Amino acid sequence: MMDINELKGKEYLAKMAAYEKVFWLNPDLGKEACPYGLADIDDAEARLERFAPLILKAFPDTAETGGIIESPLKEIPEMKKRLVEMTGDFPGRLFIKMDSHLKVSGSVKARGGIYEVLKLAEEIAMKEGLLSETDDYSILLEDRFRELFSRYSVQVGSTGNLGLSIGIISAKLGFRVTVHMSADARQWKKDLLRSKGVTVVEYPQDYQVAVAEGRKASAGDPLCHFVDDEGSKDLFFGYSVAAKRLVPQLEEAGIKVDSDNPLYVYIPCGVGGAPGGITFGLKTIFGDNVKVYFAEPTHSPCMTLSLITGLNEKICCADIGLDGKTAADGLACGRASYLVSALMGSMVEGCYTITDEELYPFLAALKDTEGIFIEPSSTASFIGPALVNKPGTHILWATGGSMVPQEEADAYYNKGKNNR
């Protein structure tokens, strides 16, 4: 335990330690330059385009987007009316970015997670002299490449969704893959991975232990690739491509983004990889005309804690007595990414926390008003627009939900209906 009174932001920390909600605005916004830029995003985007023929062949349900794994941006006017009733009024149009419905693995992790494994496959094939950038990448599904990739293993620690994305794509390409899952992970996610031939190792402890065990199991093996959710640049750049793809979607919706018409984006945050990469992309494309806020559960606000104190990954939720237990399983992370927390101190507009009890009524309301189902973690962002309460375009970034089994989805929905 740390002494809250000796830390920066102690007035927020006292509330957080008592599981009370906070809304923090970043006083250090824009103070430090980011070492990465548009070239990094362009490189990742080009790689994903090279892999589109492979994704199309391996996952035919991506046919509509030609093998590009992308989600719709949908205006939700009826949900806005309901949200105003539930949280308070706010000006502007309300949209939902449906990464909850991304193909292949059904969550935002289909961006960074799948990208990192594809990049690994490309590097191995090129090193063997079997692939060039001008080739049709669908050849990587041939038996000769599956045999090559089977010599390698992939390991990752996860609360669920990252494990799904890494496991599904790794197994499809022929890698031997192990997912180390924390106690927070849902059983159906473990079952789905095992059905794909993935080795799932379960731990009774939290996310940090699962990641540490995955890292330990990979150490010293040159044929083992560890996907480091706490510090992977490949994950980070994979997520960042979302921002470039958002540009034509905004144009199609008739949305202009400039200093007079700002864009407000609200993203649920766990360890920080996905929201951090998306934020980097958005700030690179839109600059000061986009304002990004992170949402976290009151029981596990690791990024809020790291940014308020300025300690980044050197502080964890347990240090202020928090138990880390939350129904928002994808956000159940005790310590923030060392890569992302260091960067977000200058990029993210602010952070806010939400109670578990609030997640389910938002879930039910979205299903009732717009016919869209998302998982509880995804609704953590929904109090953001009323907290910010500024004119502009507001986007709730939905991070997962489309692969939740119907029985479990119904239970979530009914809990939300009963708790209104």
Ends apart, CA distance between termini: 36 Å
**What value does the Rg take, in angstroms?**
20 Å
- What characterizes the major β-sheet? 7 strands, mixed
Portion of residues in helices? 40-55%
What is the count of DSSP helices, taking H or I runs of 4+ residues?
A: 16
How many extended strands?
11
Provide the β-strand percentage band: 5-15%
SSE string: HEHHEHEHHEHEHEHEHEHEHHEHHEH
Structure description:
This protein is α/β, with parallel strands linked by helices. Helix content is 43%, strand content 14%. It contains 16 helices and eleven strands. The chain has helices at 10-17, 38-50, 52-58, 77-87, 109-127, 143-149, 161-173, 187-195, 207-218, 233-252, 273-286, 302-309, 338-344, 356-370, 384-388, 406-418, and strands at 23-25, 73-75, 93-98, 153-158, 176-181, 199-202, 224-227, 263-268, 290-297, 350-354, 393-398. The chain has a seven-stranded mixed β-sheet, with helices on both faces. β8 (263-268), α11 (273-286) and β9 form a beta-alpha-beta unit. α14 packs across α16 (406-418). The relative contact order is 0.17. The mean pLDDT is 95.
